[in-house]
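Q: What residues go here?
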């Protein structure tokens, strides 16, 4: 049956191991619905333009719809003899209609056909991803509201640096995912282009109207150049690049959940529905869901590198190498969908230990910068103030004190001349966060405004028209 594309050109068939090697039906099967949608629009145009008989077109369309139904209900499975989903549809149509099925492929090539299928497939999934991303941002807004008054230490170099409201920390992730949403919206423009009608690469000699199927399939524009139409895989690369950046954000968030749920940090716990036990150590509660959210980034980055490598150096126009785009895109779509299904619920089920977070925010001299700022406000040049406070911290640490507050008065007076101990009263974690009042900073009012802005953005973000 591999004869369909070989026609009379060859005497013999493909060697069986080669037939298996070339086949893509096992993984491009998921395109069948899109393939049929494209064929229905193509057939309608052929009839409209007088290229095929309208009655034949009607029978082709009925046959195609039957095939789609058989696929949806699981009655149709790939036939080993037909290498890809496109040949399967045509082959099955031939079984239904006989030789009349052969009119379907008039004025079309599998090159523009597969490009069209991938555009339809990705357009739908990008739209769905955009909706799911909103769900994640909504979960982050809820989490931010829930942790507005939880004070925690923020870190640089994984060293405790300055206290912040925990909501402020989560809102940093919301900002990343908002950028992802905007980036995706932009990428959607470049998937919203129809390649159908480009034929093998040069267009077709029939009097076709490529704008008719374009409009019927809801694409905004037609490719400007038919060679580009069949060669372009930028929209696949762009999706994979988008997904990679998104997974960087997911992975950083997941890493913090893993580390913060450790005994050593003890900042938070994952919900029981998101954790597992150990098969050997009965005391363990493992943050597997967060670990796998972090780990899933690897395969997504790999798919981006893989497809970049496939496309790099390919001469125009279609080359069979391009069949390798499928598994990269499909696995990425599946991965992103799984991540966006799990992550919002994971965030909703986090629980915190505000007492421990506050204590850690107060420890480790996290108010040292602000003590230096007080000195600077009293007229000491900031560099010198930094120097003096740094020296004080070193001496106190040597004496075993873990915070300024733990130092008795007589020791303070001896080691910190010219730094009134009373200043410490305005250097509590609560005071420190409230003193940072810029719109992007960590004072209560600032963080509330950030949450309000996120919620307003969610309200206003356009719900892309469903396709
Ligand atoms: N299965 C092929 C792919 O996924 C379809 C296009 C085949 N075209 C061709 N001229 N061999 O890319």
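A:
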């Amino acid at each position: 049956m591999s004869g369909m594309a070989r026609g009379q050109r060859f005497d013999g068939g493909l060697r069986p191991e080669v037939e298996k090697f070339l086949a893509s039906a096992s993984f491009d099967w998921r395109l069948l619905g899109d393939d049929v949608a494209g064929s229905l629009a193509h057939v309608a145009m052929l009839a409209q333009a007088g290229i095929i008989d309208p009655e034949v077109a009607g029978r082709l369309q009925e046959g195609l719809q039957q095939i789609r139904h058989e696929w949806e209900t699981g009655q149709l499975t790939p036939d080993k003899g037909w290498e890809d989903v496109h040949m399967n549809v045509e082959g099955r149509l031939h079984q239904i209609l006989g030789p009349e099925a052969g009119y379907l492929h008039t004025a079309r090539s599998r090159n523009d056909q597969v490009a069209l299928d991938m555009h339809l497939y990705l357009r739908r999934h990008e739209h769905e991803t955009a909706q799911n991303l909103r769900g994640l941002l909504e979960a982050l807004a809820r989490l931010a509201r829930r942790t507005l008054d939880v004070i925690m230490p923020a870190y640089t170099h994984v060293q405790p640096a300055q206290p912040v409201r925990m909501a402020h920390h989560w809102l940093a992730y919301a900002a990343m995912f908002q950028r992802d949403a905007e980036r995706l919206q932009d990428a959607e423009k470049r998937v919203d282009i129809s390649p159908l009608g480009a034929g093998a690469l040069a267009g077709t000699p029939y009097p076709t109207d490529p704008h008719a199927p374009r409009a019927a399939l809801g694409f905004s524009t037609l490719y400007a150049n038919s060679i580009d139409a069949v060669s372009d895989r930028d929209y696949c690369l762009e999706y994979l690049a988008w997904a990679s950046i998104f997974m960087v954000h997911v992975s950083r968030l997941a890493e913090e959940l893993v580390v913060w749920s450790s005994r050593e940090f003890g900042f938070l716990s994952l919900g029981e529905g998101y954790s597992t036990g150990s098969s050997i150590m009965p005391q363990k509660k493992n943050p597997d869901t967060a670990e796998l959210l972090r780990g899933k980034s690897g395969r997504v980055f790999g798919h981006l590198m893989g497809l970049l490598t496939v496309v790099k150096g390919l001469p125009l126009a279609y080359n069979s190498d391009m069949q390798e785009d499928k598994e990269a895109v499909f696995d990425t779509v599946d991965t992103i969908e799984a991540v966006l299904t799990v992550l919002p619920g994971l965030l909703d089920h986090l629980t915190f230990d505000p007492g421990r977070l506050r204590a850690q925010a107060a420890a480790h001299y996290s108010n040292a910068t602000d003590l230096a700022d007080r000195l600077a406000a009293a007229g000491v040049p900031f560099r010198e103030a930094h120097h003096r406070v740094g020296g004080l911290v070193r001496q106190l640490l040597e004496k075993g004190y873990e915070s300024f507050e733990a130092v008795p008065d007589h020791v303070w007076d001896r080691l910190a001349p010219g730094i009134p101990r009373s200043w410490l009263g305005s250097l509590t974690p609560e005071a420190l966060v409230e003193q940072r009042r810029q719109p992007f900073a960590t004072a209560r009012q600032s963080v509330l405004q950030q949450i309000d802005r996120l919620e307003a953005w969610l309200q206003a973000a356009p719900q892309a028209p469903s396709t």
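A: Context that may help when evaluating the design: DSSP finds 19 helices and six strands in the chain. The chain has three domains: 13-106, 122-146+165-350, 360-458.
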